[in-house]
Each structure stands twice: as structure tokens, then as C-alpha cells.
TrEMBL record:
Domain called HTH cro/C1-type: residue spans: 43-89
Lineage, top ranks: Bacteria, Pseudomonadati, Planctomycetota, Phycisphaerae, Sedimentisphaerales
Organism of derivation: Anaerobaca lacustris
Gene Ontology molecular function: any one: DNA binding
Family annotation (CDD domains): HTH_XRE
Name recorded for this polypeptide: HTH cro/C1-type domain-containing protein
InterPro entries: Cro/C1-type_HTH (IPR001387), Lambda_DNA-bd_dom_sf (IPR010982)
Amino acid sequence: MVCKAIADLQRTVALLEQQALKDIPSQVTKADAEGVRFAAKGLRSQRERLGLSAANYGKLVGVSGQTVYNWEGEISRPRKQQLATIAAVRSMSKKEAQARLEITGLGTRKKPK
């Protein structure tokens, strides 16, 4: 009986973890992207301010780390929906960004010494 309850809780936690990162893009609309300007240099400084690798920043906005590098290198530009998500991440603190990544288990964990 206890094992079944634990298994049910583990499934619930797993679902919540998966949903945590999906929350940012789902709360953002294309209308939110209106008036949002994009600058590759600004994206890099935002990512560095949050203390995130390109891969982890990409996880927050729903793209790959390589895509983030392409944006920063001005090889490509984000789409309107991605701009809206980037704008939503701008208001995050360093702790909040790390917490979102850790909740989902996607963040980098420090290895114990």
C-alpha cells in the first residue's frame, strides 16, 4: 500500500518537473513579442547575468544550446514566439532561473568533492 502511494507521488512529481519548463512558453503570447527588440550582445549578457550555459539557457526558452550560440553569433534570429519567451526570461533572477532548471532535473548539478 505504501509502495503504491510512493509510486503515485513519484509519477506526479515527474509530470510536474516536465511541466515546469513548459510554463514559460505557454504563458507567453505572440502579442507579448510586439515591441521586443533583439540584440545578440544583449542576449549574451542576459545569459551571463543569469550564470547559465548556452545549453541551460536554451532549456529555459525551449531551444537547443546550439540555437542560442547561433543567435549570439548573429547567424540566425529568434522567431516571434521565441522573442516573447526571451522577454519573459529577462525578468527572472539568477536564483529563479537555477531553480526552474533544478526542479526539472535539467540543470547542471555540481559534483560532490
